[in-house]
Request: fold
Amino acid sequence: MKNKNSKIYKKKINTQELENAILNLKNQSKKKFIESFDVAIMLGINTKKTDQNIRGSTTLPHGTGKKIKVAVFAHGKKAEDAKKAGAEYIGMEDLSQKIKNNQIKFDVTVATPESMKTVGLLGSILGPKGLMPSYKLGTITSNIFDIVKEIKNGQIRYKNDKNGIIHTSIGKTNFSTNQIKENLIHLINALKKQKPSASKGIYIKKIFLTTTMGKSIELEQSFLE
Reply:
């Protein structure tokens, strides 16, 4: 859970100390750029069991502070909906060709069900980058306008790594302390709803909060209560 830029963890904190901890992390940020607030959540799951792996998405109440670029595979009215919702790149074969030629960079791919034949041919490019759309994440949909809006308004996508840890960002150091706190609580509640029935014992085992270049703080279990 400790990244290469982190120093030794500070003492564990409880719920009452959370706001002060967030404030301290914000005050320690002396970099010339706005750092991200990142969280690592260790889950009590067996990642070798398919039915215990966690993957999903949720829209943080205060967003992530990051400008998300969206590529949408759609045509006709669905393409118009994507444009209205603020998608940066929209198309079918023309969009596919731009991706093959590495002409554009984006963070999320959204596709209509009927466009998946075209998108499927890009599997070797989008797959390794985690950019393939999926039904589970809601990025294969006929409701293009709403999903693009959600993504632009702060939706995050997450999945556990091979060690059962969720890594994601929940804001920036220029967010208020309360915004970071509310985003964190929202994410934890979303993960709780996804607890696999086969997972026994403690589900959320540890939570570490850090900034891009700062220290990492472990939250006590009492925080989850």
About this structure: Strands lie at 10-13, 36-43, 55-59, 70-73, 89-91, 108-111, 155-159, 165-172, 204-211, 216-219. The longest strand covers residues 36-43. The chain has seven helices and ten strands.
